[in-house]
Each structure stands twice: as C-alpha cells, then as structure tokens.
Amino acid sequence: MIINGTELALRYKDELKAKIEKLEVKPKLAVVLVGDNKASISYIKSKEKAASYVGIEFLLIKKEEETTQDELIKLIDDLNKDDTVDGILVQMPLPKHIDAKMIMDHIDPDKDVDGLNKLNVGKLALHEDGFVPCTPLGVMAILKEMGVDIKGKHAVVIGRSSLVGSPLSKLLLNADATVTVCHRNTQDLKSITRLADILVVAIGQARYIDDSYIKEGAYVVDVGINHVDGKLCGDVDFDKVVDKVKAITPVPKGVGPMTVCMLMENVYKAYELRGKR
Ligand code: NAD
Predict the structure, then answer these.
(1) 207/107 Cα distance (integer angstroms)
(2) Best substitution site from 203, 225, 237, 258 to test ligand 1's pocket, by max atoms within 8 Å of Cβ?
(3) Best residue among 161, 162, 163, 210 to mutate for probing ligand 1, ranked by most atoms within 8 Å of CB
(4) CB of 103 sitting under 6 A from ligand 1
(5) CATH code assigned at 70
(6) Residue 190 is assigned to a structural domain of this protein
C-alpha cells in the first residue's frame, strides 16, 4: 500500500472545510516571518493555500531580519492578547540573534498551534490534552490510514528532534506501542530497525534506509525531505524498500501535505478553545 499524502490531506481538509463553513466567525491564524528565508516563504505559501481552502483567515506578519528579540516578544504579546487571533505560528528558523526557545515559550499555550511551547511539550509527556507538533500528528493520521493497530506493536523512530522524533515517540507510546527511539549515536541501527513493525524515519539523510534495514511486512513512514540533483527525496530508498513493506509513504506526496493539514486542524482546535479564554 502506497499512501498518497496529498489525497489523504484533501479528505481531512474537506471535512474541516465543511465544519468551518457553518461558523459565523472564522478561525484566524497569525503567522510571523522574520527575515526572508526562501524555504520559509515557500512553507508559508503552502500554509496560506491550505488555510484559504478550508476557510481559515490567514494573517501574515513580516518582520525584517534585524528585528530584535524584544520587538518580537512585544509582537507576540499583542497577538496573545488579540481575541480575534486563534493560532500563532512563528516560522522557523529564526535569525541567530533570537532565542527561538524563548519565543516559543512566550506564545500563549492555548494559541500554540505548532505545539512547541514547553507547557504543551510537558502535556504530551504526561499524556494530557494539549497542542502537538503538526508533523507527528500527520504521521499518526497516516498510520491510521494504513490500518495498523498500533497497540502492542514495536515502533522504531529514527530521529529525536523536538519537532518530529521526540513528540512522535510520545504519541506512539501514548497509543500503546512499544517504542524505541534511535539517533545519530545509536549503535548497530540495523539490528534495531529490523525488529520494527512500524518504522518512522526522520533524519534528513537522503535514501539512507534501504531494504536491509526493514523487516518484511513493516509499515514505513518517511518524514525526510532532501534535495538531490534538483529533486525531492526522502530518508528511505523507496524503490529498494517498496516490495518488502506492507505500507509506505513516498516523498514527495507523503508526510509533507499531512503536516500542513494538521496545522489547520490545530488552528480549529485553538478556535474551539476561544470560548474558554
Ligand atoms: P533534525 O536535524 O533536527 O534531527 C535529525 C535527527 O536525526 C537527530 O535526532 C539525529 O540524531 C538523527 N540522525 C541524523 N542522522 C542519523 C543517522 N545516520 N542515523 C540515526 N539517526 C540520525 O531534523 P528534523 O527537524 O527532525 O527533520 C528530519 C527530516 O524530516 C528532515 O529531512 C526534515 O526536512 C524533514 N521534515 C519533514 C517534515 C514534513 O512535513 N515532511 C517536517 C519536519 C521535518
């Protein structure tokens, strides 16, 4: 089974669109971009497109590269106080002179649609309801689509970043998988990944995982985005692996579209909290 993330995302977005159509006041997402990083601009465009599709109001605030940390904090304070804003997203990466962690922790946890504020990170660790980063949410939706019963399965996550690997490992654990997290310093990676019923790869190394890493009949989700010879590819060598697995995601048209879609879901969730603020 090859999962088409673009089609799956469209199904989720259509459901969300139908819910938002019924609302008198639309949910609103504020996106802050500091500087003019090309990749950031392209990510923001796809977020804007998805927001417009589902009916979420999109407010883009562009700041110069030289913006100071204090100025950015002041802006976030204003957005926190603004009752018409449901979700706040500060596009990463931020310029080096700004402490990104501090900025994340400044966002109202109830508007933290990227799920990177430490209160939400803690809630996930405690298996409490909060905001969860969008890519791990997208991976969980893909596993659902694959039809895998996660409970009791051995899930191996390669990568432990705070954006992907770490929150994903907690989601899988909360879903009753037995979870092994691997990273750069893991020894004999293959001996671990070969035991995986579910393998999620988020390392940023083009086509690193070939069939020798895979257990027959595994469910494989490839989070990686790499540029090789002007083309996009994942962390998994798709052609070598595809015949050995039960289900797999391609790159492109895999996890990427689901990430953007889950951001829209998080904005809707923040909107639902609006009444409680
Ligand atoms: P990161 O650089 O923050 O973390 C990479 C992780 O992989 C680290 O924990 C590191 O220890 C581990 N790692 C690196 N090389 C390894 C190796 N050879 N063996 C085992 N572990 C190794 O990256 P990230 O932000 O987690 O992103 C990972 C990849 O996912 C990147 O390609 C990124 O572009 C992509 N990504 C995709 C989406 C999406 O929506 N599809 C979203 C976020 C990130």
Answers:
(1) 36
(2) 203
(3) 161
(4) no
(5) 3.40.50.10860
(6) yes
Task: Please state the pTM of the whole predicted model.
Answer: 0.96
- On whether the CB atoms of residues 167 and 133 are closer than 8 A, the answer is yes
Q: Is residue 2 part of a domain?
A: no
Q: Is 39 among the domain residues?
A: yes
Query: If pLDDT is split at 50, 70 and 90, which confidence band does 275 have?
Result: confident
Q: Tell me whether residue 114 is one of the annotated catalytic residues.
A: yes
Q: Residue 146 maps to which CATH number?
A: 3.40.50.720
Burial of 53 (0-12, 13-18, 19+ CB in 10 A): middle
pLDDT digits (tens, 9 = 90+) for 194-225: 999 999 999 999 999 999 999 999 999 999 99
Instruction: Note if 74 is an active site residue.
Output: no
Q: Cβ(21)–Cβ(55) under 8 Å?
A: yes
Does the pLDDT value for residue 277 go beyond 70?
no
Closest CA to 201 of 187, 216, 180, 217: 180
DSSP 8-class letter at 159: -
Per-residue pLDDT reduced to its tens digit, 40-64: 999 999 999 999 999 999 999 999 9
- Pair (180, 241) in one structural domain: yes
